[in-house]
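re: the backbone from monday

yeah here it is again, tokenized this time
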């Protein structure tokens, strides 16, 4: 009875607690601006460089080693990142080692933490819904990973909606169990989602907020203790988001935040013996981690993503616009970017390609609809273009030239949105296939066409590709959709007239297929798959049957 009364009292007080928190937020915002922020996005410059720290054992700390990040648009040294080297990993190793394999919480231990994370999510979602906070993160993203304001704000929006989705009781619903009757009275089996304990998250530069937040919160929801490493070029975004989460109630000891090079992080993962590592990034690094960590990984690695235009031609302007967005938004620096476009012969007779060319030529540096490529140099992209143009029958459709009148430093790439046509038969030749399907993480795509009787060749090309992240089948012909979907494997496949390859919202699974190590992001299914394992508890409490006797040996 006392427990019931206490619960009622807590429920009665809960709305007042939330109200007082939001009231204090509004007061602090009016007096101090953004209470969590330590930088102003617009003021970061060579003369006023920002600093990014590490978080270990509940304290923000500097190191003796600084990595200076150049402004992608003008080359100024505008951010100083405190990076941990191999001699400095021990505090992180010690912190992770203190977390048991059964996690910080699970269905039998500290279940109130499920509710705590529902509250944190609600508060953080509210914060990101405030125009001033949303604009702060949008501008900060633009400073380090230049993309249009709309693309950057879309990243903030998806993050805010994700947090909104897991407010209230939704976190504990992730740990929902099930029961099955046993063979006799007193026996029942129950399945539970169980944390791994100490885990690691390694994320890339291209989505500085969305990817790390969604994976970090998923790890925390399920009861794990994560260490988070974001590409140092953009880690300032997540450092500021960590401070926002602390402001919203995240215990400061729950997450370790580290800046380091790949070699140092690899050593840390081995010494800390993390139980699971989520890696988003290049296939080469992903395969190395899988070996080093003995398979204790979930991967969302590179994607050479394809789009097939079916035989039914309609809404030409719309399809051309989506093709442009898929290939060139964020300067093609999306793991879901359209890398190869298969055009049915019926589309070849339209003005689709000329419309795609016109749309690509609208893009400019002023509004960052085209911009610096942070992992591939101009020289590398132009060299790849020249190699493709040596294939028989290939031709440049548009682009293919360096951007002009800019101050982007040479360590980054800067080329026009580019499309190269290669005949389908030539693509399939053994000595060409690897070249044509090499992923260029920039504004670059390969285009080909096919006849109806060549669809098996298209499906053969799709089958031979190594990465199976996203795909699009642009057709409303149900038999065509059935044929292509039934003979392909990409984990996130859009189908229908409005199909795209990009756009990873919070309302559906996003991740590869065809690989047992594949990671998802954003949905309850993805969180449970990546950040928890199955544990079965079989209760067998009796009673024993009357007159039970010891049976013969078996």
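seq for it, each position gets an aa:
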């Amino acid at each position: 009875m006392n427990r019931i009364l206490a619960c009622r009292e807590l429920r009665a007080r809960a709305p007042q607690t939330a109200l007082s928190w939001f009231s204090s937020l509004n007061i602090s915002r009016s007096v101090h601006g953004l209470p969590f922020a330590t930088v102003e996005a617009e003021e970061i410059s060579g003369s006023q460089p920002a600093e990014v720290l590490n978080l270990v054992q509940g304290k923000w700390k500097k190191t003796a080693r600084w990595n200076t990040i150049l402004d992608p648009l003008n080359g100024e040294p505008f951010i100083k990142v405190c990076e941990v080297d191999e001699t400095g990993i021990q505090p992180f190793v010690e912190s992770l080692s203190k977390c048991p394999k059964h996690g910080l919480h699970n269905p039998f231990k500290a279940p109130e933490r499920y509710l705590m994370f529902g509250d944190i999510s609600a508060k953080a979602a509210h914060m990101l819904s405030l125009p001033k906070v949303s604009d702060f993160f949008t501008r900060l993203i633009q400073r380090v990973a230049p993309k249009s304001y709309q693309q950057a704000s879309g990243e903030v929006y998806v993050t805010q909606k994700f947090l909104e989705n897991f407010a209230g009781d939704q976190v504990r619903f992730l740990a929902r169990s099930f029961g099955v009757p046993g063979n006799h009275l007193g026996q029942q089996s129950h399945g539970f989602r169980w944390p791994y304990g100490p885990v690691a998250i390694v994320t890339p530069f291209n989505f500085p907020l969305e990817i790390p937040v969604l994976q970090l919160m998923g790890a925390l929801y399920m009861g794990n203790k994560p260490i988070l490493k974001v590409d140092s070029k953009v880690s300032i975004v997540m450092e500021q988001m960590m401070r926002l989460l602390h402001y919203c109630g995240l215990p400061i000891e729950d997450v370790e935040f580290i800046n380091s090079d790949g070699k140092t992080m690899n050593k840390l993962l081995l010494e800390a013996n993390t139980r699971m590592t989520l890696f988003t990034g290049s296939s080469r690094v992903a395969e190395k981690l899988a070996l080093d960590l003995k398979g204790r990984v979930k991967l969302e690695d590179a994607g050479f993503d394809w789009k097939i235009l079916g035989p039914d031609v309609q809404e030409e302007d719309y399809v051309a616009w989506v093709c442009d967005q898929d290939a060139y938004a964020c300067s093609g620096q999306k793991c879901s970017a359209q890398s190869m476009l298969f055009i049915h012969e019926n589309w070849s007779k339209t003005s689709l390609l000329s419309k795609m060319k016109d749309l690509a030529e609208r893009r400019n540096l002023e509004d960052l609809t085209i911009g610096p490529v942070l992992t591939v140099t101009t020289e590398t992209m132009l060299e790849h273009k020249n190699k493709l143009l040596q294939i028989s029958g290939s031709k440049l459709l548009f682009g293919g030239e360096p951007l002009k009148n800019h101050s982007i430093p040479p360590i980054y790439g800067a080329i026009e949105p580019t499309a190269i046509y290669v005949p389908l038969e030539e693509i399939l030749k053994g000595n060409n296939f690897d070249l044509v399907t090499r992923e260029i993480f920039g504004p670059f795509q390969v285009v080909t066409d096919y006849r109806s009787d060549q669809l098996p060749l298209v499906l053969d090309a799709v089958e031979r590709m190594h990465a199976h992240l996203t795909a699009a089948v642009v057709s409303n012909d149900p038999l065509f959709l059935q044929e292509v979907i039934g003979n392909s494997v990409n984990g996130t496949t859009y189908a229908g007239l409005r199909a795209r390859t990009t756009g990873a919202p919070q309302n559906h699974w996003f991740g590869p297929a065809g690989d047992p190590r594949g990671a998802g992001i954003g949905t309850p299914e993805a969180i449970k798959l990546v950040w928890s394992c199955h544990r079965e508890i079989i209760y067998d409490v009796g009673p024993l049957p009357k007159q039970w006797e010891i049976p013969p040996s078996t």
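DSSP finds 19 helices and 20 strands in the chain. The CA atoms of residues 117 and 411 lie 41 Å apart.
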